[in-house]
User: Fold HD domain-containing protein from Capillimicrobium parvum.
Amino acid sequence: MSTTTTGDRGGRAGSSDPLGSIGWTERTGGVLTARECVTLAPPLLRGELGILAGLLAMALRVHSGRRATIEPARLAPPDSSLARDAQEAAEDLLAPVLRNHSHRAYAWAAAIAALRGISFDRELLYLAAMFHDTGLPSPVPHVDFTVRSAALARQFADRHGVPADSREVVTNAIAMHHTPGVGLESGSEAYLMSAGAAVDVFGLRSNEIPDAVRRRVVEQFPRLGFKREFAALWRAEAKQVPRGRAWYVHRFAATDLSIRMAPFG
Assistant:
């Protein structure tokens, strides 16, 4: 775990915070300006095209995942008391459908890191994965659900003595994860959290995941009707936060259809 000493924003954000970051999300409630909507259009379109290209590659059986291999140990959660406590917290906070989604999102993120040679902090990514959707089942008008998810993660991390800069990594990964086009410049954990969640929800980059890995992860953490339940939660979030990121993706990327088309049961 990182031990440098940058401050924990804790919601005291300035206007220079990047779009989708924890500072931006807490300052704005996650509500997009017209200019920010325009800024997100190209990465959203690239993501949609990537999903379609991946589905076509899998249908034709020419996807890169057919040729890739990943050692199972590289997908396992960290073997630490912090990680185990985070898993127990998630079990208390989440219903089984979202709990299994959190585990799968971590596994997909770790798989992408292994395939692309990305270094990351396993404990911090695991904390982000366990807490990233904890705010989704209880939408609040005009406040992005990741604000509540990040607050729960911050409280947990603070109780467990996680340094302030590491809390910032976790909460930023949570806040960023449903922003279209998150790149490595936002940090490895933020990039991988977004990528892992996108694999599980929309199937983005699922063509890169080895076939055996996809089968094994879904067998270990069953979907349990995830598509139907998550689509309903996303619609509720989009309704409660007009001009939020969930609203934006739902309106311009046809999320119900994208979720149904994801290559999972």
